[in-house]
Structures are given as C-alpha cells and as structure tokens.
Specification:
Layout lengths: L3 E3 L3 H12 L10 E7 L6 E3 L2 E2 L1 E3 L2 E5 L10 H8 L2 E6 L2 E9 L5 H11 L2 H8 L6 E6 L1
Parallel strand pairs: 1-3
Antiparallel strand pairs: 2-3, 2-4, 2-7, 5-6, 6-9, 7-8, 8-9
C-alpha cells in the first residue's frame, strides 16, 4: 500500500486526526471531507481536509487557501492529475475533480459561502479568483 502524507500544516493535520476520531464529523453542522491527491512534483499521495457542499450528486469544494494570493497545493495537484480519493464520513471512494466553469461558478460559489461565510472574507482578501472544484464519483 502506498503511504499517504497528511497536510504539513499542523492545524490541517489536527483536523484530519479529529475527522478520523469522529467518523468524519469533526465539526457538528459543517460538512468536511478528506481528499487525497497525487503530488504533481513528487508523485506522493497527499491528504487534506476541506469543507464541502453537495450539488446534486457532486461534491463541491473551494480552493480558498484562507484567502492567500496563491492556490493551495491540493488544487494544483488535482489540475495535474484529476483522479482523487475522497473520504466522506466513514466512506471512501474514487472521484474525478475539475474546476467549475465560468458559468457554473457563481451558483457554486454562493453555495460554498452559505456553507462557510468566512469564504466571503477570503475572497475580499485575495487578488485571485478562488476556484470552485467539483468532485464526481467514478
């Protein structure tokens, strides 16, 4: 089995630990998932924790990077290789990731801001457009 490396950010690694301890419910009332991407430079498997919402049968996440002016590593990794493994609750499944199109993004961004209002502040803080990503089983 290939080793999976958790985020090097201590607060994210702690969130992943709490996710596992609680069966995927580390924050009551907030939907969290764990995506595992393949590192675009190293080829290593990398896991992080993200807030999600549902849009039909798709999972929606935002590459906010807390409002930093650069994209998060997990987003850059999935652009290089859109095959991801996603854990929601105790269930793990293969998925394909893709950025939302310009037409899809406004609706999906509003969905994400309604799930986590901090995203609106992150958007104000950065000069980049925060990508919204769709994860589809399969």
């Amino acid at each position: 089995m290939t080793e999976v490396h958790d985020s090097p950010h201590a607060w994210v690694a702690e969130h992943i630990r709490r996710f596992e301890e609680t069966g995927g419910r580390p924050r009551p009332g907030v939907n969290d998932l764990l995506p595992t991407t393949r590192g675009r430079r190293t080829g290593n498997l990398r896991r992080t924790a993200l807030v999600y919402e549902r849009d039909g049968d798709r999972y929606v996440v935002a590459a906010s990077n807390r409002g930093a002016d650069r994209h998060p590593a997990w987003y850059l990794n999935l652009l290089a290789d859109p095959a991801v493994v996603v854990q929601v609750g105790r269930q793990t499944f293969a998925a394909r990731a893709r950025p939302a199109t310009a037409v899809e993004r406004p609706h999906l961004w509003r969905l994400m801001v309604s799930a986590m209002p901090e995203y609106a502040a992150y958007e104000e803080r950065t000069t980049r457009e925060i990508p919204v990503v769709l994860l589809t089983r399969g």
